[in-house]
Amino acid sequence: MAGSGYTDLREKLKSMMPYRDSYKGGSLREPTEASYERKRRYHEDSDSEPSDYEEQKEEEEARKVKSGIRQLRLFSTEECAKIEARIEDVVSRAEKGLYKEHTVDRAPLRNKYFFGEGYTYGSQLQRRGPGQERLYPRGEVDAIPEWVHDLVIRKLVEHRVIPEGFVNSAVINDYQPGGCIVSHVDPIHIFERPIVSVSFFSDSALCFGCKFQFKPIRVSEPVLFLPVKRGSVTVLR
Question: Could you give the CA distance from residue 60 to residue 26 in angstroms, rounded to a whole number?
């Protein structure tokens, strides 16, 4: 599904970056002493010990984030296997071109499948920035499959995670080994809270408060690291 030949998103990003740093105005140039100095200062700063104030601030931020999260284990191993087989069928159907154009969104080591509602984001936006995301017109993505209602949504309603009729959009994020998604906020003008996530195929983690930099790719320590087990439900308020 990731036709680029890379096995890790970091490899792809690294391969894209050397010419970006050294090419400007149509000619190659050597890094200046000032640029080395900036990099040296960055590494010195990143290795420095945080102050008590910074630690307290991060602890408070972590408490606030955690207060808006609820996790519960709802799906048994057998139920996971049944749902995972259905997800594999979605992947197979997408590869055969059996879905509408905007149902499937492909990226290196991560594919998204929109059902019910789909939306533009990231590089698809004509104008960049938070709040610019837009829903596709009705009918431009496929309807939520019946198995999602029967095997996933119904169980969430039965356990009072969400009320009946709450869900009008279901998105499958299919990550390959080494795949991830950068820090983001799900658009508040598109998504009603809570946002409910169910994890299948493997254990994973959600990291909150990370800052990404891409030349080279690196990421700060998360404010909150949240383990996510296979078959678990994460409710984000």
Answer: 48
Number of domains, the chain: 1
| Residue 142: closest CA among 118, 172, 108 | 118
Question: Which tops the pLDDT comparison, 197 or 43?
Answer: 197
Whether the CB-CB separation of 142 and 100 falls below 8 Å is answered with yes
Give residue 232's pLDDT. Answer: 97
pLDDT at 222 over 50: yes
> Domain range holding 76?
68-197+229-236
**What is the CATH number for 157?**
2.60.120.590
Reply yes or no on whether the pLDDT at 100 is more than 90.
yes
- Candidates 36, 42, 119, 175; catalytic one: 119
Q: Is 113 a catalytic residue?
A: no
In a domain, 103, yes or no: yes
pLDDT in tens, 2-40: 344 445 544 544 454 443 343 333 333 333 344 334 444
Q: Return the closest-CA partner of residue 215 out of 8, 39, 45.
A: 39
